[in-house]
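Entry for pyridoxal-5'-phosphate complex. Fields follow.
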Amino acid sequence: MTDPLMPTYPPPAVEFVRGEGSWLWDAEGRRYLDLLSGLAVTSLGHSHPAVAEAVCRQARTLLHVSNLYGSEHNRPLARTLDRLLGGGGRVFFSNSGAEANEAAIKLARKFGGRGRHVVVSAYGSFHGRTLATLHATGQPAKHEAFQPLPEGFRHVTWMDLDDLERSLDDTVAAVLLEPVQGEGGVHPASGEYLRAVRELCDERGVLLMFDEVQTGLGRCGAWFAHQPHGVRPDVVTMAKALGNGVPIGACWATDEVAGVFEPGDHATTFGGQPLAAAAARAVLEVMEAEDVPARARAAGRRFREGLEGLDQVVEVRGAGLLLAVEVRPDRLPEGGAAAVARDLLGRGVVVNPVTPAALRLAPSLLIDDDEIDTAVARIAESLDACDPLRGTGGGAGEEPG
Ligand code: PLP
C-alpha cells in the first residue's frame, strides 16, 4: 500500500503509542528508555502531569482567540522568558523553531534597513527548513534541490573569528549562531569565541542573534546555553522544549531591536495562542521549581562519567544534557552510528545518530540516576555487541512491561 504521508522521513522502525517520564511504549507493550525526547522537546519527560493538566484545563476553557485580542497567558509567559533572559526585552511567539528564526531574520532586516539585510551564519549550523532558514542553515547539500533560495545569507567557518571578521561588510545586519551546534554534531562554541563575536558585532553595528531552539530552556545546564559565557545577545530564538511537545516557539529581542516591529510587520494565526501558551506557562513553572539547569548539569556529569571510560568511545562532548558520544572509527560496525542506534532500539533505548560516528543523547532533564545508569549499561552492551573487534550484534528488545 502507498504510504499516505509524503516521503520526507524514512519509514519508522517503531511506532510509539504512549509515554511517561523517560519511557515510551510501542503497540506491543514493549518499553523503551527515551534518550532523545522527540529531539530535545519533551524536556520534562512524557505526559508530565502539570503540563497535561494545564492543556486539559485550557482545552475546556478557551482553545484559541486571534492575536488581535489579548489572552490571559501570552503576556505572563513573555515576562517569564524575558526574566530568564536577563530582562530588557520583548517576545514574539511562533509555532516552531524555524518560524522563530524567520521572525529574527525579519527583525534583523528591518533593524538594519534597506541594503543592510545579510544574515551571516556558520557552516554546520541548522536553523530550519523554511526557504529563508534553510538558506541560513550552513549545509549547502541541503540547499541544492531548492535553489534559488532567498537572497541575503552568507556562511563562515564555525569558530573561525578571522573568517567572520572578513564576512562583516556593510550589507550585514546580523550574525546568527547556535551556542552549541546541535544537528551539526553537538559542537559547543567556546566562551572566548562567543565573547569575541559580541565585540566584533558591537564594533560593526551588527546584531548578535543566538538560535537556542535546541539548546535553550535548561537543556545545556543553564537557562540558555550562551549565558555561562557572559555574552548578552540582541536576539534569542527558542522552541522545542517550550511546550514540552505542544508546538510553540519564541523570538526574544532587546527593547531596542524589538521596537522596530510595528503592527502589520509580522504576524501568525496560532503563535502564542491560549492552548500553547498555557502549556508553556506550566512547563516554565515546573522547570523553575525543579531547577532544570542544575539537574541537567548533574545528570550530564553522570552520563559522562559512565560513558567516557568505554573502550569504543573517543569523546563525550556537549553541555548539560545535550551530548554526543563519538565512537572510534575502527570500533564502529558497518553502517556506523546509525547501525548502533538501530541495535540500541532493539535493546529498548532511543538515541539518534547525529553524525556517521556519533550518537546524540538529549534525554528528559528530569531523568533520574537509575535511568542514567540503565542507559549507560545498555549503550555499553550495544557498543560491545556492534564492535567489529569484539561483538556478535543484535539486542532483542525489552519484554512487554
Ligand atoms: N534551529 C535549531 C538549532 C534546531 O535544532 C532546529 C530543529 O532541529 C530548528 C531551528 C528548527 O526548528 P523546527 O523544526 O521547530 O522548525
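NOTE: The longest helix spans residues 369-386.
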